[in-house]
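Note to self: keep these together.
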Amino acid sequence: MTFRTACYALMVLCAGLAIGLLAVPDMFAVVFGMSPDPAAAVMTRRALGLFVGLGGLIYCVRHVIEPAHQRSISRVVVVLMAAMAALGLVEFFQSNVGVGIFVAVIPEVIFATLFWRYAWA
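Structure:
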């Protein structure tokens, strides 16, 4: 997979998450095995902004061809995705979320792996 294709895939994921968070914010709490409440809704809306920003950033850098720039961008994506996956696993093992967290953890690991090849090339 090329750097550009990986960027497009991440952009689509971010757009899908942003739309989902906007349309049905309570669904995410339910999928993760949590009860939807006002605090979760506030955090969901804040996460929506992060996904819009990340998706927009990745869209803007998709045509970067300079290897040093691709490495920098990819390292950030790898750290971000690995951290998110690790935090999801910690929450799961602490019984704060249910098995639905793997709906998030699996793509996070996949994207960390996809961008890894560009991060330390």
